[in-house]
Design a protein that fits this description.
Helix content is 24%, strand content 30%. It has 322 residues and is of the alpha+beta class. The chain has an eight-stranded mixed beta sheet with strand order 6-7-5-4-3-2-1-15, with helices on both faces. The structure holds adenosine-5'-diphosphate and magnesium ion.
């Protein structure tokens, strides 16, 4: 059994964090230009923790991992992501990333970003597997980012459409949205809001015999391609559909059943609509998960009007046995 704990860093953790950073970075192969991590000391780390916080991971009470936070706009930046080499392969980094993403959501931040060196393929693979995309390159530094999922409580159909209209305002040709949820969840209702926001022609309805329908723009923008795959039980590839419009020139919405089609498109918004337990209530829960480099680079922002009280995490502490 391993006792792995991640805690929100405070002033009392500064010395342990400095120790972990030094262990991690002095053990790393020499890079050109070298990392400045070894210049960190109690003063610099203390200032960073005081300003934005960070994380400390302990295994059996010993400092095993650390990272520092910076906030830049709606982005949580992870700095000095460190694991003491003695504790490598124990899930320390994964646990810290989970806590960092939780911290980002708790603070209402839309994205998480970090820098990884191009010379460290294992590190790049680590971030790729956790859904991070390379959004820019500065010399040897690859800027990685990931958009955080958004969870909303949607009390009425009108509110669902208003949210969709706001999403529409951030869409461009080539974008794909996959809507999952039971029959009657509100997938078509959401799509109607998208149509209104994109200003496309034609009523958006639940097609009974038609699998897909193209709604051309009335304002010279992208068309809306509306695909209802709910009754089909799935399509292997979006490209397999015989569509009248080219997907690169349109915004494509796929209504889906349960079980997301990960292969549909590398860049997409995955939306899941669920009802509360209370059947008389019209309230829906909407989860929007932005996937891929397109959203990692730009993020998706919704106004506070729709934002609900996301329950604050009870504790940042996480215990994992293995
Ligand atoms: N909060 C809500 N969000 C979305 N739809 C709602 C909501 N409350 C009630 N409704 C109603 O639920 C129904 C959803 O139907 P529809 O959008 O066709 O679902 P789906 O396409 O998922 O099968 C509509 O009649 C809509 O007016
Ligand atoms: Mg529908």
């Amino acid at each position: 059994m391993t006792d792995l704990h991640v805690v929100d860093a405070t002033a009392e953790h500064v010395d342990e964090i400095v120790t972990v950073i030094h262990h991690a970075f002095s053990n790393r192969r020499t890079l050109d230009p070298p990392s400045t991590a070894l210049t960190e000391n109690a003063t610099t780390v203390g200032a960073a923790v005081g300003a934005y916080g960070g994380l400390l991971a302990r295994i059996d009470g010993e400092p095993a991992g650390a990272m520092l936070f910076t906030v830049d706009g709606d982005v949580l930046e992870l700095r000095r992501v460190s694991v003491n080499p003695r504790f490598q392969g124990r899930g320390v980094a994964s646990a810290m990333v989970g806590c960092a993403e939780e911290a980002a959501r708790r603070r209402g931040l839309g994205r998480v970003r970090l820098v990884a060196r191009v010379e460290l393929p294992e590190t790049l693979e680590f971030w790729r597997r956790r859904g991070y995309s390379i959004v820019a390159r500065e010399g040897q530094n690859l800027i990685h980012a990931k958009a955080m999922p958004i969870e909303l409580v949607v009390p009425t159909a009108e509110e669902m459409q208003a949210i969709a209209e706001e999403v529409a305002g951030q869409l461009r040709a080539g974008d794909v949205l996959v809507l999952s949820g039971d029959l009657g969840a509100g997938k078509t209702t959401f799509t109607q809001g998208l149509g209104a926001g994109l200003k496309v022609r034609g009523d958006i309805t639940s097609p009974t015999f038609v699998i897909s329908r193209v709604h051309p723009s009335l304002v010279g923008g992208p068309a809306l391609v509306h695909v209802d795959a709910y009754r089909l039980g799935g399509i292997a590839e979006l490209d397999d559909l015989d569509l009248d419009a080219s997907l690169e020139d349109a915004v494509t919405v796929v209504e889906w059943g349960h079980g997301l089609a990960e292969t549909l498109a590398p860049d997409r918004l995955d939306l899941t609509i669920t009802r509360g337990d209370d059947d008389v209530d019209e309230t829906r829960n909407l989860r929007i998960n932005p996937v891929g480099p397109r959203w990692a680079a730009s993020g998706l922002r919704l106004t506070a009007a729709h934002a609900t009280d996301v329950p604050a995490a009870l504790t940042a502490q996480r215990s994992e046995g293995n």
